[in-house]
Amino acid sequence: MRLRPTPRGWGLAGAGLAILGLGTGMGSTDLVRIALLALLCVGGAAAVVAWRDPARGRHRIDVDRVVMPNPVHAGSVVGVDVHIRARDSGARTRLAGLKFAEQAATELSAGKPLKARVVRERSEVTVSYTVEAARRGRWPIGPLVVTRTDVFGTVTSSATLGDSAEVTVWPAVVALPTPSDVLVGEPDRVALGARSPSTDDASLRDYREGDDLRRVHWSSSARRGALMVRSDERAGMRPVSVLMDLPLRGGVPLEWTISAGASMALAMLDAGHPVRMLDGARVSAAGTPFVHARTDSARGALLDRTLDLESTRSAGEAEKHLVAAAHMLDSTEAGGEIVLAVLGALGPKARESLAHVVDTAQGWAMVRTDGVSAAQQQDSEHTVRALRRAGWRAVAVTPGEDVVAAWTRMLGSVR
Asked: Count H helices, E strands: the chain?
């Protein structure tokens, strides 16, 4: 808790000290008594305010904060209710004279004071307000700051009550159409099978990363000591990897890349595909697991991977991350995987690595123009041509453009 005199308190204390000096010099007992009374008023008020600290003691006040919705997508409005409760009569007395102020990260408050609605009851005060989740990330909100002034108005105290909460802000996403006749062509359907299940389980193969566990043939797996799946179970969907090459600059290029990648991942998940998101920096030797179920928790698991993404520090680091991700895709052996990528202009090593990915996978790419110079524009166009020669379906995009338009243009591209 922090104590400080009010202007009235400073004036009273200053006058008391001045009168004390004057009374001592003149030998006036009455003046000394008046001075001591003024000083005692300020000191006693400070002692009482400190003793009635609402954050300590048997009569402390409880704070409960409810944030809804949480998590939330960037650009959404979040409602916050702070419930300040008194547990007994002593706490209710302390609660009566308190003033409340809430704190929030700049990414939630835009640096402006929060406008709250305060509802007071006998044993509870509710502070309600809204914030706008402006940026992707994890942002703190709270703790509650309470202030109190003594009855004479000479001393004010401020203290924090309760803990802070965290608002999880996912990137903004848009709904993307997923035309199966484009992403999974007719030759792929022959290889993958139709969508109706077969009753003949005689044809089995080894389990591969991305296969649906519901098609595991458990009796054969037990006999052979390894997972086996029904290869003629024709309800399967091709696994999808969404690869994001994070730009060197933050701001619009970074957030647009992440938003586009997240939108593609959710669209493919909703279409029934097992999906994983790759950013290169967090690729491990064991690989990144696929998310299978079309549930809110599965969508959350994908979006959570975007929360801590940051722009790369150098072009060399970006290429290193991209090569690592391409190597993992090339060695996964997912059997006809679909790779959706949001890339920047590529260097020779990255182009070579990504060229091998489409030997066993189907590749679709958006290539950003990260700068405004003619040279950077040419680098992006060169990357698009190189990817197309390797077998990718690639288009050039501009960070900040409509994601649906970029997605539709990519699906309409040709090799």
From this structure: 13, 17
| Residues paired with residue 157 on neighbouring β-strands, in sequence order | 3, 148
What does DSSP say about strands 2-5 and 99-104: parallel, antiparallel, or unpaired?
unpaired
For 61-170, CATH gives 2.60.40.10
Which of 194-198, 271-275, 376-380 is the most confident on average? 271-275
Q: Where are the domains of the chain?
A: 2-51, 61-170, 180-193+237-411, 202-235
Work out the angle between the directed axes of helices 348-357 and 374-390 (0-180°, nearest 10): 30
- Residue 82 CA to residue 97 CA, distance in Å, equals 17
Q: E strand or H helix at 158, and its extent?
A: strand 155-161
CATH class of 180-193+237-411: alpha beta
Residue 390: closest CA among 400, 401, 382: 382
pLDDT at position 12 over 60: yes
Say how far apart CA 40 and CA 44 lie, in whole Å.
6
Higher-scoring residue by pLDDT: 341, 328: 341
Contact by Cβ (8 Å): 230, 198: yes
What interhelical angle do 7-26 and 29-51 show, nearest 10?
Answer: 150
Q: What distance, in Å, lies between the first and last C-alpha atoms of the chain?
A: 68
Q: What is the rounded distance in angstroms from the CA atom of residue 370 to the CA atom of residue 61? A: 52
CA 318 – CA 326 distance, rounded (Å): 12
Residues forming a β-bridge with 48: none
Report which of 354, 369, 360 is spatially closest to residue 280, judged by C-alpha positions. 354
Pull the structure tokens for residue 362.
């189907």
d(CA 280, CA 310): 12
Please report which confidence band the pLDDT of residue 187 belongs to, taking 50, 70 and 90 as the band edges.
very low
DSSP string, 198-255: PS----EEE--TT--GGGB-HHHHHHHTS-EEETT-TT----EEEEE---SS-SHHHH
pLDDT at 325: 83
